Amino acid sequence: MSTPRSDRMTLVAFMQASNVSVYSGSWRYPSSAPDYLNLRYYQRIARTLEDGCFDLMFFDDRLAMPAIYNNSVADAVKYGARPIKLDLTAVLGAAAAATEHLGLGATYSTTYYEPFHVARTFATLDHLSGGRAAWNVVTSVNDAEAQNFSVDAHSEHDRRYDRAEEFIDVVTKLWDSWEDDAITGDKESGVFADPDKVHELHHKGEFFTVRGPLTVPRTPQGRPVIIQAGQSGRGRGFAAKWADLIFTGDPSQPVAIEHYRQQKELIAESGREPDSVRILPMVYVIVGETEQIAAEKEAIFLHELVHPMASLTLLSEVTNHDFSGHSLDDVVTDELIDSVSGIRGLVQGVKRHVGDQPLTLRVLANHRATLLQGPRFVGTGAQIAEQMRQWFESRSCDGFVIAATHFPGAFEDFVRLVIPELQRRGLARTEYSGATLRENLGLERPANVFGQGVPAGV
C-alpha cells in the first residue's frame, strides 16, 4: 500500500536539555530564560509547541562535554559551549505530563548504550505518553564520549555503523516481543497473558547477546518513531532502511533538492515507500513584526553572541580533532582535510556556502556554532511562510526541523507569527487529528514481526 505525500508540512522543534540551543550563543541573548535546570522550563516550551500544533519536540544529546580542544573542558565551560546536557528520560517525562498530543523525541547512542536499555526506555515513554515517543538513532562521535564509558578512543566510522545495524535490529525485535493481544488479564482464571504471544529473542550476534523478551508490552505505536540524521554514504543507507524521519543539514535549497531526490531513491531501493519517510532539513527562523525588526535580530545573532573560542571548541568536538595548535585564521588545506577524520563532509558543505574563496578555520568553526551552519528564513511571519512554502512545494523537503536562536522566545515568536500564516496556506494543521505521533505524521503502525511468524533469534 503506497503512502501519498502529505500536503501538510511536518514540523519538528530542535531542542537541547542544556544552557543553549543548537546555536551556541543563545544563552547570551537578553531574553533567554535562565531556568534551564527546572522542569517547568521544558514544560513551558512543550506547551508552546503544542499550541502551535508541532508534530514533534526533539532533543539532541551528547555523552560528554566538548573536551577535545586542548584536551580540556575549560573553554566549553568558560564560554558556555554546550557544557550542560541533562538526562533526557526525566526531561521527556516532564514534557509528556504537560502535553497531550506533541510528539516527544530524544537522541540515544548505539555506541555506548545497550539495546535492552534503549528499547525499554522508549517503550515506557510511548506507553506513558499515549503513543508519542520517537528515538533518534546516532553513533557517538568523539573520544570524550568514549572516555566517559571506560573506553580510550571511539571506534572508526564503519565499525560504529556495523554495531548500529545490529543494535536497531535487536531493539525493534524487543519492541515486537509482546504481540498486541498477548495480555488477556483474565482475573477469574488467573491467566494474565498468553505465553505463546510473548517471545524470547535468543539473539546472538557480533556485538550483542540478548535473550529477551522486553519487560514492557507492545506500545500504542507498535514501535516508537525512528529518527536518523546520517550524512555519510553509510549513514544515508542506514536512514533509508530504518528511519521514519530523516533530519538533514543541507546549506542551501539546490543542495537540499538534490539530497531529497537521492535519499528518496535510496529509500525505494531499500524496498520501502519513499513518501512514507519524511526528509526534514534543519533551518533557523528569525521572525519579526516587521522586516527591520527581523533584520536587526539576525545581525545580533550573526555577529554579537558567539565567542570565536566557543566555535573552535565545538569544531574540535564534532571532528574529534584538537585544533588548539592552529590559529583561527589558518587556511583549511588539503593536507589538513586528509589528516582530520570527519572533517571532509563539513568542509564540502561550507564551501557550498562560501564558494571558491580560501576557507579558514574561523569560517569553518562559525558554520558549526552560528546561524551559518544551515539555511535561515528571515522576515515577517508572512514572508517566512512563503519561503517555507517554496521549499516544500519544490520538493526540497517534507517539512522542517526548526532550530531555535534562543529559548523560549524563538518558538514563541514562530507560533505567534508564522504558524497562523502556514495555517492560512493550508500547510500546517489547525488541530491534531490522531491519538499517536505516527497517526499525526500519517505513518502506518508497523506489523509485529513475531505475529508474522518470524522465528525467534532471526
From TrEMBL:
Q: Name one Pfam family in it.
A: Bac_luciferase
The answer, when asked if Flavoprotein is one of the entry's keywords, is yes
Would I find DNA damage among this entry's keywords?
A: no
Matching InterPro entries: Diverse_substr_monoxygenases (IPR051260), Luciferase-like_dom (IPR011251), Luciferase-like_sf (IPR036661), NTA_MOA (IPR016215)
Protein EC: 1.-.-.-
Q: Which UniProt keywords apply?
A: Flavoprotein, FMN, Monooxygenase, Oxidoreductase
Similarity section = Belongs to the NtaA/SnaA/DszA monooxygenase family.
This one is known as: LLM class flavin-dependent oxidoreductase
